[in-house]
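README: folding subset

This subset contains proteins for which both the sequence and a predicted structure token string are available. Records are stored as plain text. Below is the entry for LysR family transcriptional regulator (301 residues), shown exactly as it appears on disk.
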Amino acid sequence: MELHDLRYFVAVAEDLHFGRAAQRLHLTQPALSRQIQALEAELDVQLFGRTKRSVQLTLAGQTFFEEAKQILRHTEQAIQTTKRVARGEVGRLRLSFTASALRSVLPEIVQVFRDRYPDVQLTMNERCTHDQLAAFHSHQVDVGFLYPPVDEKLLTLQPITEEVWIVALPKGHNLAKRKHLTLNMLANEAFILHPRQEGAAFYDRIVGLCEQAGFYPNVVQEVETSQTRVGLVAAGMGITFVPEHLQNVGDTAVIYRRLKGAAPKLQLAIARRRDNFSPIVQQFLHVVEELSQKSGKESVA
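--- output ---
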């Protein structure tokens, strides 16, 4: 028995007329009659009671009619769901991001993606770049917003935006009276930085800029999250650097100042495993690319 046998039977059962059903199926009436007879022979059951003037379902035919409709309905659902999965419209996307991404580009991207693909289950976790790499290695994340450089043998990267980092000072600090600072003004300060293993390139970049300004930074603590570093600044433990868009988030006992001249900058990128060809990931990347192009046009305008 084939699916088309069920479709032929359902058409006749719905119309109770071989001529109309044949027309709907784009078959000749004799051909449709032969198909139904072959189905009855295969089942060894009479499905229709026929007279010269009418066609009626037998009791067995009524039962088969309900079951056949259910099979065809489930088959169509399976086909449509499979097509939606192939188009990246259904499934799951596991997303990781740095704290700064959550305060900058990520909200609009996620909102647009969820509006377009409401049936995709989105799970989101904040992780530093170091932890994201571990998650990628263990197949725990599909897409990540992180800071290069990273292992590009494992991942493919797409740059999104460049973040300028600014200085966070305790509110009562003597440098807080100045609108802008230079790095050499920080020579005698206690620095609170992220652990070097979390982002060696950026850590070394900060140290290198300080050395160019004529001093080596006095790093008193290394703390993973920007929020905790800012909290320590508020407690008077030292100064730190944060992305510019984080200056309005956090403790009011902290003052933020731009740096004149050389300032730490960091490239934010979106990453995925090179061997991940999920349609959902591709759709998410398309949204990111579309919004990036839109943002670029607006900035030019």
